[in-house]
Amino acid sequence: MEFNIKSGHPEKQRTACIVIGIYEPRRLSETAKQLDEVSIGHLSSILRRGDLEGKIGQTLLLHNVPGTLSDRILLVGCGRERELGDTQYRKIIAEAIRTLHETGSMEAVCYLTELNVKGRDTAWKIRHAIETAQATLYSFDQLKTKKEATRRPLRKIVLSITSRRELTLAEQASREAQAVSSGVRLAKDLANLPSNICTPSYLAEQAKGLCQLHEKLTCKILTEVQLEKQGFNTLMSVAKGSEEPPRLIILEYRGGKKNENPIVLVGKGVTFDSGGISLKPAMDMDEMKFDMCGAASVLGSFSTLAELQLPLNVVGLIPAVENLPSGKASKPGDVITSLSGQTVEILNTDAEGRLILCDVLTYVERYKPEVVIDIATLTGACVIALGKHAHGLFSNHNPLTNDLLNAGKVSGDRAWELPLWEDYQEQLDSRFADMANVGGKEAGSITAACFLARFTKKYHWAHLDIAGTAWLTAKKKKGATGRPVPLLTQYLIERSHEKSPVSPTAMPDDSNLDELSELD
Ligand code: BES
Ligand code: MN
Ligand code: ZN
């Protein structure tokens, strides 16, 4: 899909469709007013007749509107003007895109980016229009032999801005949005693949493929023998139940200064989680192919990072394994010495995520990381606590917590902090080893994070539990969300601004400040 940014009068656009907003109740947006004038009241007479109330997401497609040069005009309900916030804006864009795609307009000029969204500037509106459009048009049909082809698909959208002065900022936002969207798409595609295709070795091949596309990106793969030899014992204790050999994928992106310490991302890559000997119930077990969404989000974020050529050093680590029961699988009660030297009693083989992560969290010390962020579909308890809306966030460093919370708010990919207090640690006490791998019924997400915290004492660290947010379960909508690629990449973008504060495209210019004060 192609996106362009332009400013210009709606009546002068020679295009397949112009998209404009209508507020509730039956009130014209600024652009709608302009078109109403040139069409001598065509739009207002339609609204008066009651064809469109302006409720959020309603649409009405008009043809041959007098006084205009475009084939069609799509009216989109925007709800009440005062209530137009982030969520409403994305919903409006999504409805508009879906309608365009289904009604034969292969290109369109969209004026919805000129709507006032509470507290948001033009750059934000451009970014979210593009990301929402790409997400709306995403489909995963690689494995269907009969693809549902749209006869006249939407190919090109021009997003309108009110003044040419905003062009530089809007174009930067557009570049970011497209890079984030391709990262999200990659994460979704990998996660939607079933576990018979997307194995640990498949993930490693995909990582290699990604590195071939970008010069600053390299990768190394540690195989079974190397992992065994180097003492990744808790990781191996999970992998050994499966015929699929494990991999540790190591991605390195060098965009920063040579001696600059890296930001490290660690993604849980369990390509299928049956629970192991502590076998899961059959119901919905297919969804455990999504247990590598943390890994997918790291690969997606690296794709965005490399596309944007951010001036940072970033390392990505992905432990990739399959968790199955077999004659070789770990059993409840087994005690393993982790790479850190601490011993772990495996009381439940289904708490495997923390077992593969803890060795890698020890291994990262060698990078002298500035910060480490792990991303994992770690606990069912997190789905209960926060549902599908927010990632669970845990951290041992307040500034990092704040950075991630803020990146979540800006990107619309939100996280919510949960406590990592010492008080919870005793739940991990073990009779036979330094710790157990489970902490009982209470506060399951917190005790999982507490387990990881025992391996991350030497650096600033945050943990994102994405069990509720990484995929949707509703039948029709079942599939990966690509989250938290938007949050992670926003965090990286903001870190890169810190490093090069003079970048002219990154700084708001005066025209943008004018714009904001007009909104007040
Ligand atoms: N991958 C699961 C967590 C999960 C479950 C994510 C359901 C999304 C939906 C993880 O490996 C797991 O099985 N965790 C156990 C931990 C328990 C044994 C302490 C869980 O949450 O039940
Ligand atoms: Mn599990
Ligand atoms: Zn798991």
Assign the CATH superfamily of the largest domain.
Answer: Zn peptidases
Which ions and ligands are bound to the chains? ligand BES, manganese (II) ion, zinc ion
**Architecture of the largest domain in CATH?**
3-Layer(aba) Sandwich
Give the overall form.
Answer: elongated
User: How many DSSP helices?
Assistant: 15
Name of the top-level CATH class of the largest domain: Alpha Beta
Which spans have pLDDT < 50 for at least 5 consecutive residues? 503-520
Q: Which SSEs are present, and which pair or pack?
A:
Blueprint (H helix, E strand, L loop, with lengths): L1 E5 L10 E7 L3 E2 L1 H9 L3 H8 L9 E5 L8 E6 L8 H17 L4 E4 L11 H16 L18 E5 L6 H26 L7 H14 L3 E6 L1 H7 L2 H7 L7 E8 L8 E5 L1 E5 L19 H16 L4 E11 L10 E4 L5 E4 L6 H11 L7 E6 L3 H7 L4 E5 L2 H14 L3 E3 L17 E2 L7 H10 L7 E5 L5 E2 L6 E2 L4 H15 L10 H10 L1
Parallel strand pairs: 1-7, 2-5, 2-6, 6-7, 10-12, 10-15, 11-12, 14-18, 15-19, 16-17
Antiparallel strand pairs: 2-3, 4-5, 8-9, 9-12, 13-14, 16-19, 20-21
Helix pairs in contact: 3-4, 4-5, 5-9, 8-10, 9-14, 10-13, 12-14
The structure holds ligand BES, manganese (II) ion and zinc ion.
Gist of the model:
The protein has 520 residues and is α/β, with parallel strands linked by helices.
Structural summary, described in words:
It is a single chain. The protein has 520 residues and is of the alpha/beta class. It folds into 2 domains: 2-160, 3-Layer(aba) Sandwich (Leucine Aminopeptidase, subunit E, domain 1); 191-507, Zn peptidases (Aminopeptidase). 36% of the residues lie in helices and 20% in strands. It is built from 15 helices and 21 strands. The protein has helices at 30-38, 42-49, 86-102, 122-137, 167-192, 200-213, 224-230, 233-239, 293-308, 353-363, 380-386, 398-411, 444-453, 485-499, 510-519, and strands at residues 2-6, 17-23, 27-28, 59-63, 72-77, 107-110, 156-160, 217-222, 247-254, 263-267, 269-273, 313-323, 334-337, 343-346, 371-376, 391-395, 415-417, 435-436, 461-465, 471-472, 479-480. Strands 8, 9, 10, 11, 12, 15, 16, 17 and 19 form a 9-stranded mixed β-sheet that branches. The longest helix is centred in the middle third of the chain and has 26 residues, at 167-192. The chain is elongated and about 85 Å long. It starts with a strand and ends with a helix. Zinc ion binds next to strand 11. Manganese (II) ion binds at residues 273, 275, 350, 352.
